[in-house]
Amino acid sequence: MTRQTSMYAAALATVLSASPAIADDTPSISLETMADATLTQDTIAWDFVEGITTEVGPRQAGTEAEARARDWAMAWLSKHGFQNVANEPFEMETWVPGDIHRAHVISPFPQPLTVQPLGYSAATPVGGIEAEIAAFDSFEDLLAVPDGSLAGKIVYVSHEMRVSMDGSHYGQFGLARFAGPTVAANKGAAAIVIKSIGTDHHRNPHTGMTRWGDSAAPIPAAAMSLPDAANLERMIDRAGGKPITLKLELNPRLLGTTMSGNVVGEIVGRNPALPPVLLACHIDSWWNAPGAFDDGAGCGIIAAAALHVSHTGQPLRTIRVLFAGAEEVGLWGSVAYSAAHIDEPIAVGIESDFGADRIWRFESNFRETNPDLHDRIRLSVARFGVANSTIVASGGADLNIARDQKAAIIDLQQDGTRYFDLHHTPDDTLDKIDPEQLRQNVAVWTQVVGILANEERSIKNGGIIPSAPAIMKAE
Predict the structure, then answer these.
(1) What digits encode the pLDDT tens for the residues 27-51?
(2) Rounded Cα distance, 60 and 211, in Å
(3) pLDDT at site 281
(4) What CATH number was assigned to the domain covering residues 17-94+256-453?
(5) pTM, entire model
(6) Is it the case that residue 64 has pLDDT exceeding 80?
(7) Could you report the per-residue pLDDT of 213-234, keeping only the tens digit for each?
(8) Of the residues 30, 104, 152, 299, which has the maximum number of CB atoms within 10 A of its CB?
(9) What is the C-alpha to C-alpha distance for residues 249 and 123, in angstroms, rounded to an integer?
(10) Contact at 8 Å (CB) between 163 and 85?
(11) What are residue 83's DSSP bridge partners?
């Protein structure tokens, strides 16, 4: 290494680690050089996700743990030079999972099976429910049987979800979880157990939110690990039409109304009158894991990108980060943020909430109405292995405000091949994050956010705003 190269590398390292965010004494550097440097040198995103998973851990919405996460995140943002750091509180109806999650085949092949309650599941009576299983190969098969026809039975619903890079199977096969419990209740079932909506082969059930329609009172609802579900299906086949009896015991409970909140912070732009660039993630996790993939990494990625852009000079537009609360249990934070800020236009919304593996595709909702900006972005990220797409971006779960305002939206699609092995399971831990792929995310985000934050012209949307994201994690 030459002396000049060595001096440049040292200056670059100073920029990448500098705090506060906008530091007059840090070396000037171009956006492209900064984004390239983060590909090998960023440590900020890792610092965030390592810190929150180590010092806070699981962050169930509406609980003391989520409140500690907000305090931790605000301290982290302030330490790193973000301005206008705040907690924006909101009320929510809070559910907790309890500590009894048991299932046991009573006959004809007695043995325990691993389960976890689904969000807002009802509890079983003390001692559990013992009933015959009514098994269905799919949600559609369950939907087809008459109302009232499953009285007193425990419904079991399977599916054929497979690994997919874009996570597209989740939307289709997730219906077993999103809507299956309400349908089972309408059919008269005493409880429901679903094959976990996931793709792993571990005895780790995937929890997740279920929504109860007005037509049904909640019943006990649980997810079974994929290996146990496969075992149960073999039992059903081997029983040859004879009843399978299952005992299920769950003790979740509602705490009533408690407080959650959204954490916000800003890199203030040179022209605060211009609508800001909104970068979103969510700070809560399920109780059963420290939420490294979902979504500690996402918050680290967006915060790191905002900081790196600030070190190329004060951006024209303000960059606002939104660490949304209570996403997993129903988008409470996303809805609350939109309600509170609906009259404050944003320029564009982007979210990171699909793990920490590499970004491979760029989408916008302004490809046709603002082609120059779309093309500038697509060309700028091609060097990171990111492909262009004609798919209309719909935004992440915490971007309700962008959809409500019909604002510009960008999706930086991550590789979801591993995502549903870890999603909502105890395996969502820090060791699953690949630092190299995490840095690629930061590099792409730095490049994109830097372009958007210095765009003088109006960032027009494409006039097509879907009513909900293609992959709605909390649904």
Answers:
(1) 579 999 999 999 999 999 999 999 9
(2) 17
(3) 98
(4) 3.40.630.10
(5) 0.93
(6) yes
(7) 788 899 999 999 999 999 999 9
(8) 299
(9) 8
(10) no
(11) 266
Tell me which residue has tokens 């499953």.
150
CA angle at 14 for the pair 47 and 294, rounded to the nearest 5°: 20
The residue assigned the tokens 């109302």 is 147
CATH architecture, domain defined by 98-251: 3-Layer(bba) Sandwich (3.50)
So where are the chain's domains?
17-94+256-453, 98-251
Q: How far apart are CA 195 and CA 160, in angstroms?
A: 10
